[in-house]
Specification:
The structure is a single chain. Helices cover about 45% and strands about 15% of the residues. It is of the alpha/beta class and about 240 residues long. It has one domain (about 5-239): Spore Coat Polysaccharide Biosynthesis Protein SpsA, Chain A (Alpha-Beta Complex). It has a seven-stranded mixed beta sheet with strand order 3-2-1-4-6-5-7, sandwiched between helices. Bound molecules: guanosine-5'-diphosphate (GDP) and magnesium ion. Guanosine-5'-diphosphate (GDP) binds near residues 54, 79, 80 and 228.
Length: about 240
């Protein structure tokens, strides 16, 4: 993106690294309350945003579109893994795409963290940069969630041979090669472990970056994070 971009001028933001070669892939499921603001903020610095709406029952898709994202819709809920696959396949159709950032639609991820990760991938020449909340002193998941996430990362480290501190972080930068090589077949939450296993299988190079995951009242109240974590374990054991 050049400095003549009107959105950037309006907000006076500095040019962001990789703004014209980076596609943000944003999984979207019933986040109508917050997704508009998330997309608008993102697009002041990164204009290329594809939201994959996965059969939301609210008006998430319309709101994301009005906020300026490209919206691809699944006809029914297929899960976050399937949504990331759809989004990455979409981004691969742009020959100028050099990296994809996977970025949640619920306001828990920071654009500054994504920008730092994009710059880092470029500087270090690695295939992927993965966010880790356990390297970040500000991020404080609840005790049970922390224990489950720790168990998930240990399991994933064992099965993949890739040594990470956080295997289930939705904020990732995947260079084009990683996008081409990594196959996501796990539709639901176990896709996160699957991505790490694919990194190991293809011997892709990785750096981990501390990222601040914001636990807001909205994010706490919204979902069933514990149920998600339990589902991760079930998915891993029975896939
Ligand atoms: N496309 C799609 N996105 C989903 C689905 N479930 C959750 N998401 C999105 O994935 C992101 C992370 O989900 P969330 O429930 O916040 O998980 P957590 O924060 O990792 O516990 C959010 O942006 C959700 O809107 C789904 O079934 N399909
Ligand atoms: Mg969340």
């Amino acid at each position: 993106m050049s400095t003549s971009d009107p959105a950037q001028q309006q907000h006076g933001a500095p040019p962001s690294p990789g703004a014209d070669t980076t596609w943000f892939v944003v999984p979207l499921f019933n986040e109508g309350q917050v997704v508009g603001e998330v997309i608008r903020e993102l697009r002041t610095r990164y204009p290329l945003v594809v939201c994959v709406d996965d059969g939301s029952e609210d008006d998430s898709a319309r709101i994301a579109q009005e906020a300026g994202a490209v919206v691809v819709r699944h006809p029914f809920n297929m899960g976050q893994g399937a949504a990331l696959k759809t989004g990455i396949d979409y981004a691969l159709r742009d020959p100028g795409m050099r990296q994809v950032v996977t970025f949640d639609s619920d306001g828990q991820h920071q654009v500054d963290d994504a920008a730092a990760m994009i710059a880092r991938r470029e500087a270090e020449g690695v295939d992927l940069v993965l966010g880790s909340r356990f390297l970040d002193a500000r991020t404080k998941p609840g005790l049970l969630k922390r224990l489950l996430l720790r168990a998930a990362v240990q399991y994933t480290n064992l099965t993949s041979g890739v040594k990470l501190t956080d295997a289930h972080n939705g904020l990732r930068v995947l260079g084009r090669t990683a996008c081409e090589k990594i196959t996501i077949e796990q539709n639901r939450m176990a896709h996160a472990s699957e991505i790490v296993e694919e990194i190991g299988r293809h011997r892709l190079t990785v750096a981990e970056e501390p990222v601040h995951i914001v636990y807001t009242d909205y994010s706490r109240a919204k979902g069933q994070p514990m149920l998600n974590s339990v589902n991760i374990v079930i998915d891993m054991l029975f896939r």
